[in-house]
Amino acid sequence: MQFTAVHSQCDSRRGTEGTTQCVSSIYFHETKQEPAVCLKKSTINSLARHIACRDRSADYCWYYCSLTPNRGGISTCQCDSDNSKSIQSVVPLHCYIPSGKSCSWYRECLETRIPCESTNYKYAITYAEKYCELYEQNYASFSLQGKTWVDAVRKCLQEGLVYALFPKKTVSCENLKAKAFLSHIDCYQNPAPDVRFCDLSLSDQMRVFWTIKGALLNEFRKTVSSGWTVLRSCISESYPQKSEKLVMLEIESTNNLITEEKVENITKHLSRVLGWSQDIMYAFAGPDISDSQAKSVSIKIFISSQSKSQLRLDEAINSLIQKAMPGTSIVLTLDDGSTVKIIAVTGCNDPQCMSTSFAFRTNDDLRKGLCACVTKVSTAVNGRKQATTSSEIGGRLRKGSCYKIVDGPSNNDDYTWHQLTHYCWTENLWVANSYLEASLLSYCNEPICPERSKSLACQIINNTQNITLRDYHPSGVIDEANPRQNIIDTCSGHAACRSMYNCTECAYLGAPGGYICLQENMLTYINELGKTIGIEVQIPRMQT
């Protein structure tokens, strides 16, 4: 057994248990002091097996603040001023070495030492004790690994606040609450060696989310939003599993910002409208607001059954599908009286929703900010530089390709036109709506390419000695789809653009357009050739 030694300086034979004092600290190289409490050896042995008095024959010794693991760092244990005057502890002695097993620690120890419940910075009872008890109530529903995580978190959270119990520390309610919530994120992520939130099953992760939803989750967003984002990303990484489903909702934007708090409110009211069983729990991963001007926002919701009932999970998904069938609409009235409209619903087979099991739009409107796909043509449609049939053709848009609507409608020449954009284009193009169909916003998102492709492309760029990348087309057309730009885009983590200009030799009477992830085997081949001989990479004239 490994012991952490404790100095025996509080009269090893006749110490006064419960005395606290600022003493010289080896952690501060004897230049500063830290608070300590005098404890009987028998008290220490009963509370912590891994701690013992340095003088094994002593009956009493100092228990230093720094002996308790502290996510805030040893500096939180520094005495406010050098003062050797002794003060009797105001809290029970077991408070200094918490086991994490009792939720009453927050009331009996923390609130007793620093009463904050009557202030604007309440924490010990309103948050800590309440959610500790919720974990206790839900404990049986966690897996063995999940229970290990819960036990470690409860101990970690209490240990992180022990420093505040010493009378020699001056801690305000405001600072206490701020540090407490910071410790929540640290303790949730990695509460003990080899215990991590991201290693939990998706079912356990969702039970954690389900436990802290509401007031505690709102405080997370206010005080440690970046840390909560890290935890939330772990939920996405764990999908898919058979006992959970992921759906993506496309919400029509309003003048009000779609915040995480509003997304939680949307999810809550959606569950009520659909009549989900109380057995159904949900967690969200959104909103995705990459474009502040977009007319819709995508949010992802994980849905699971607390009893792991596949029947109830299927019923919840089917109720959403039936409500979202084309021609219907889902309008939710939120707690603040505002309304939101769900304009599309997608069932996702992967965290990025690249593969789907179902997809519906609740209406077929084409308007600015939404996504439109070319569908009502045999091969391709002309994209024009102005909203008229006589305007110059800027490119051929192939059937099945999708684009964001940035302007319109504009009525000319007996057509209603919409201006489309694509990140590969140098200018936006107009297309008549008779060739377009409203689609899910996700269809207009750039594909996510493999990290391996990104790495290979960067190696190609850096091999300037043997690899030459052309920055032009044999046709003389200038666009963003030349070999050099394709490799640069891939190295930057983007998909590679494809040309879309007119040519009589090309399929669809024009190059295919859009974007594509460059294949790893092609990039590997270029890399291997470049290691031994000098090569020049170009694109042949015919692009099909």
Q: Secondary-structure blueprint of this entry?
A:
Blueprint: E1 4-6, E2 19-24, E3 33-40, H1 41-47, E4 51-53, E5 60-64, E6 87-88, H2 105-113, H3 124-138, H4 144-159, H5 173-189, H6 202-212, H7 215-223, H8 225-237, E7 244-252, H9 260-273, E8 280-288, E9 296-305, H10 310-323, E10 330-333, E11 339-348, E12 356-361, E13 371-374, E14 380-384, E15 393-398, E16 402-412, E17 415-421, E18 429-432, E19 436-439, H11 451-462, E20 467-469, H12 483-491, E21 496-497, E22 515-516, H13 520-532, E23 535-537
Parallel strand pairs: 1-4, 20-23
Antiparallel strand pairs: 2-3, 2-6, 3-5, 7-9, 7-11, 8-9, 10-11, 11-12, 13-16, 13-19, 14-15, 16-17, 17-18, 21-22
Describe the structure.
Helix 5 packs parallel to helix 8. This protein starts with a strand and ends in a 7-residue tail after the last strand. It has helices at residues 41-47, 105-113, 124-138, 144-159, 173-189, 202-212, 215-223, 225-237, 260-273, 310-323, 451-462, 483-491, 520-532; strands spanning 4-6, 19-24, 33-40, 51-53, 60-64, 87-88, 244-252, 280-288, 296-305, 330-333, 339-348, 356-361, 371-374, 380-384, 393-398, 402-412, 415-421, 429-432, 436-439, 467-469, 496-497, 515-516, 535-537. Strand 8 and strand 9 form a beta hairpin. Helix content is 29%, strand content 23%. It is built from 13 helices and 23 strands. The chain is α+β, with helices and mostly antiparallel strands.
